[in-house]
Amino acid sequence: MRNARLFIMLAVAVTLGGGWYVFSHRDTGNGSQTTEKTARPVVTHTVVPRAMPVRITAVGNVQSPSVVAVRPRVEGEIIKVHIVEGQEVNEGAPLFTLDFRSAEASRKQAEASLARDRAQLDRARRDLDRYTTLLKSGSATRQKVEQLTSDVGVYQAAIKADLAAIDNAKLALDYAFIKAPVAGRIGVIDGKLGALAKPGDAQPLVTITQLRPVTVAFAVPENHLGRIRAAMAAGPVEVAVTAGADPSSRSVGRLTFMDSAIDIATATITLKATFANDDTRLWPGQYVNVTLVLGTEADALSVPSEAVQTGQNGQYVFVVDAASKVRLVPVTVDREVDGQTVVKSGVSPGDKVVIEGQMRLAPGVEVVEKSRTAS
């Protein structure tokens, strides 16, 4: 029994000793393996100054400089419609013809009244000349001369009224032929053949939308204001737009308007760019992606956009120090260009910022740099 007890104790001692040897041999003989298991693998990017274009992106809305609701200026029946829906017309092109017979009759009546009053004026002037001569010889009374003088004035005033009536009739006659006030595209035609058109109608006969040129309105953050003003003072500022549905369709115009005040609710300022739109690629009401080109910044500090994180206190990046530990660094972002974020403050040339693996990081965590996995 005593020998059996000694045998069991010896077996336990051997087992414990072997386990201690294996554990101590793994910790001391292969320390780098332990470090690799506790350190977080990350992919980093070294910050270096480089030339970066100064471009500001926004979402804009295409606007027509002129949308005209065509209404009649005189009352009349529509006797002819010269257009079809969707047609493009030039300025001055005929749109509708109203019944002009009443205006024509008014013009002829005014012209007849003018002829009558001119004949009466001629007769009154001849009578005045004759009675003025008779007055000098004592064969006529002064009262008669004064009466004829008054008649001449009355007929002169009547002639002026006739001329005004003729002008008014001609204007009404001209209004019966409704023409396009601007060049553009015809919308829905509500003025139908045979309908009675009135100046007080709420519904316009048709709406014309100007397509050449067009403007694009968009808003940018107020921190770009100084840079935009400087660029406008230096010369024309290029603006490029692309449609969301077709990024390959690119139109180029120039910045033509800056609002007089910043919107305090959104901290943005409204801008407008003008485009010739000769190919009518831009359509009023369309939303487009806007790129405002302001030049090139020679020594900009930029990081891949995936390096910039957003927290409760703003935007930040993780920077790896010489001891392979990360620290959280707040940054001030200026703009984003082609997947690169230009940083105004927070990082310095030579800093290593983490671009992959941020989800498992916290300040002070030790990391090990890995190569980026090909996607």
UniProtKB/TrEMBL annotation:
Residues 299-357 form the Multidrug resistance protein MdtA-like C-terminal permuted SH3 domain. The keyword Acyltransferase does not apply. This is Efflux RND transporter periplasmic adaptor subunit. Residues 107-134 form a coiled coil. It comes from the Bacteria. Residues 108-176 form the Multidrug resistance protein MdtA-like alpha-helical hairpin domain. Gene3D superfamilies: 2.40.30.170, 2.40.420.20, 2.40.50.100, Helix hairpin bin (1.10.287.470). Residues 213-295 form the Multidrug resistance protein MdtA-like beta-barrel domain.
